[in-house]
């Protein structure tokens, strides 16, 4: 169960997650640009970290300087500039290894593909696996990273293929590809923590509420659950905290896109969401500044 502005599904603390024992993994949710997140994974007191996407090098470098760490590996989800704009500078500063599935990623990189399994801190580091999941739809050659093994909880780093309460707009892929991507995510353990690439939760939930109330597009998502999720999201944002991570289980209760029953159903939701974004007079509860946040795994 969730409580308003509190979570029993994971412990969130504003203190550094990196002062604990060397066996503790942490993910820092770091806001960059307007509404992007990069996610930095660190093992205990190790001075090396792994970063998922790199939209802004200066913010990532500031984070590293504050923590006294360097970036060892970059895992890139897709080629859009707000996810790769800082790659060259990060590689130049830390000699980081870049992993991705798209030839449009800048510089030299290690090609990955769906089905690959990597080691997050090297082949001898506690057998923590990074499974590469094909995640086409938002773009071609989009991948997500499913991290599991030594973590207490598995983690899905979804880029722009899935958000809390939503999924990515289709720029290069189609609804069938996006539906297959979401079906893959639905099959993951429900305790899996979701770390998406943007803070889009509130807008997605406002759309879900509109879908529930109008009833023109069928969904199993309940209005009461969406309303509670909106309250929680607003509460976190007002405190300068990100609304993520959530879990796959939570998303199954509030994400109308994840609950689509076919590619046609998903396409109808995507079309409605685009119209909703263009025409809605929804009231946003203010402009929020979100600060970096650490999550124990």
Q: What do you see in this structure?
A:
Helices cover 30% and strands 25% of the residues. It has helices at 57-67, 81-84, 87-94, 175-186, 201-214, 223-238, 248-254, 263-279; strands at 2-3, 6-7, 12-13, 25-32, 36-43, 48-52, 70-75, 97-100, 110-111, 117-119, 129-134, 143-148, 155-159, 162-163, 166-167, 193-196, 246-247, 293-296. Helix 4 (175-186) crosses helix 8 and helix 5 runs antiparallel to helix 6. The longest helix is centred in the last third of the chain and has 17 residues, at 263-279. The two termini are 18 Å apart.
Task: Give keywords.
18 strands, eight-stranded mixed sheet, 297 residues, alpha+beta, 8 helices
Q: Order the strands across the largest sheet as they lie in space.
A: 3-18-4-5-6-7-8-9
Helix content: 25-40%
Q: What structural class results from the helix and strand content?
A: alpha+beta
Low-confidence stretches: 6-23, 283-287
The major beta sheet can be summarized as:
8 strands, mixed
DSSP strand tally? 18
Tell me the number of helical segments per DSSP (H or I, 4 or more residues long).
8
Mean pLDDT across all amino acids: 88
SSE pattern: EEEEEEHEHHEEEEEEEEHEHHEHHE
Strand content: 15-25%
């Amino acid at each position: 169960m969730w409580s308003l502005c509190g979570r029993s599904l994971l412990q969130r603390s504003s203190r550094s997650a990196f002062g604990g024992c060397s066996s503790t993994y942490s993910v820092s949710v770091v806001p960059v640009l307007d509404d992007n997140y990069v996610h930095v994974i660190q093992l205990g007191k190790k001075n090396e970290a792994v970063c998922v996407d790199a939209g802004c090098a200066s913010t990532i470098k500031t984070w590293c300087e504050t923590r006294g760490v360097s970036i060892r590996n970059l895992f890139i989800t897709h080629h859009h500039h707000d996810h790769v704009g800082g790659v060259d500078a990060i590689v130049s500063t830390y000699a980081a290894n870049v992993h991705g599935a798209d030839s449009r990623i800048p510089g030299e990189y290690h090609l990955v593909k769906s089905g690959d399994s990597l080691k997050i801190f090297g082949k001898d580091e506690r057998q923590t696996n990074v499974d590469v999941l094909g995640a086409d739809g938002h773009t071609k050659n989009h991948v997500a990273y499913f991290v599991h093994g030594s973590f207490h909880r598995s983690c899905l780093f979804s880029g722009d293929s899935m958000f809390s309460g939503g999924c990515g707009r289709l720029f290069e892929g189609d609804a069938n590809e996006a539906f297959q991507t979401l079906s893959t995510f639905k099959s993951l353990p429900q305790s899996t923590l979701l770390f998406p690439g943007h803070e889009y939760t509130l807008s997605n939930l406002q759309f879900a509420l509109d879908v529930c109330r109008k009833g023109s597009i069928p969904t199993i998502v309940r209005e009461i659950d969406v309303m509670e999720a909106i309250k929680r999201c607003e509460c976190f944002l007002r405190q300068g905290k990100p609304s993520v991570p959530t879990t796959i289980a939570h998303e199954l209760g509030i994400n109308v896109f994840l609950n689509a029953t076919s590619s046609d159903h998903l396409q109808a939701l995507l079309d409605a969401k685009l119209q909703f974004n263009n025409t809605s007079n929804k009231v946003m509860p203010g402009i929020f500044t979100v600060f970096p946040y650490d999550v124990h795994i």
